[in-house]
Amino acid sequence: MAQGPRLVDLVQHRIDEFLATRREQLRRISPDLAPLLTHAERFLRGGKRFRALFCYHGWEAVRTSTPELLPDASTPHLLPLISAAASLEVFHAAALVHDDIIDNSDTRRGGLSTHRVFAQQHTEASWMGESAEFGQSTAILLGDLLLGWSDELLDEGLDTLSDRVAGRAVRAEFVRMRTEVTAGQMLDVLEEQAWHTANESEQRLRAERVIIYKSAKYSVQSPLLVGAALGGATREQRSALEAFGLPLGIAFQLRDDLLGVFGDPAVTGKPSGDDLREGKRTMLIAITREKLGTGPRRLLDELLGDPALTPLQVDTLQRTIIDCGAVQEVEALIATNVRKAKSALTLAPLGAASVAELRALADTVTRRVR
């Protein structure tokens, strides 16, 4: 994964370059819009860049020979790749902004979530109306703006691509990803509100469906396929990357679910037990409910989703989840899905060096510390 740090720098450069042009565009409309760009620039710095990395490795894996990445992101043959990777990161930022509104989250990456940032701006400026409403409205609009910009970034790169067939394939993957993750987000919202009307035997299957469409495809599989399409992947290569990406994406989200309940705020940037306060109906919760008796299950259901949970109540829920064996089972599911992903690379028609890098990346994204 020697190219990883270099790729991250190139992607950041491309994002900065793109935002500079949009800053000028918004400045001409009104200087009052400057805070939108200031926050977008700050929000789009840092992060793990997993989607950009998977996009690159998808591209690299299907090529017969991969040239060294040059230090200039505008190099013609690299611009489509770097722009696609950057567009995935901007799309991810848009999804996070909207997700924090939906979840009513106060923090993101160790700081205030976007709608809280703009609510604070409203309060400090002593404007009329409700600060919370202003913050939410502004964040929705910024999220929409980022969604549009992710499209523009992708198109700017594809416009320089000589292979029009590959360009259409990339666009098709991106559009499919956008539809699937939006549908997955809707399913997640639905589960939080309607879980009690579903058959108990379906809870795990419904949780897995949310994992697949809200996260697994969009976090791992789709970026791989976007990169592979840019590299002119054959059907067999695409199938191998699909078979690798989906189980790895599931493992990635299962790890995220554990971090959402047990994660160290200094590492995750969010309060410990945040998913418990938000009432996330994850696979971890579905498994916990299966393992608990009627009384403890009823208590779990009563507490889950209460934004006013005390630290003691969070600790009680965490110990309940651990003691019933749910954490151990989720860890086993993560390991099983990682093995499944890696086995999909065996004898796959992909470059040997790329296969080794993908195997290493599989471990990296699923062994994040708490």
Write out key terms for the chains shown:
370 residues; mainly alpha; Farnesyl Diphosphate Synthase; two-stranded antiparallel ribbon; 74% helix; globular
Question: Nutshell version of this structure?
Answer:
By secondary structure, this protein is an all-alpha fold.
Structure description:
This protein is 74% helix and 1% strand. The protein has 370 residues and is an all-alpha fold. It has a single domain, classed as Orthogonal Bundle (Farnesyl Diphosphate Synthase). Strands 1-2 form a two-stranded antiparallel sheet. The longest helix is centred in the middle third of the chain and has 31 residues, at 164-194. It is globular. It starts with a helix and ends with a helix. InterPro entries: Isoprenoid_synthase_dom_sf, Polyprenyl_synt, Polyprenyl_synt_CS. Pfam families: polyprenyl_synt. GO terms for molecular function: metal ion binding; prenyltransferase activity.
Number of domains: 1
Quote the distance from N terminus to C terminus. 23 Å
Q: In one word, what is the shape?
A: globular
The helix content, as a percent range, equals over 70%
The overall average pLDDT, rounded, is 91
Tally of separate helices: 16
Number of strands: 2
CATH architecture: Orthogonal Bundle
Structural Rg: 21 Å
Structural class: mainly alpha
Classified by CATH, the class is Mainly Alpha
Query: Which percent range describes the beta-strand content?
Result: under 5%
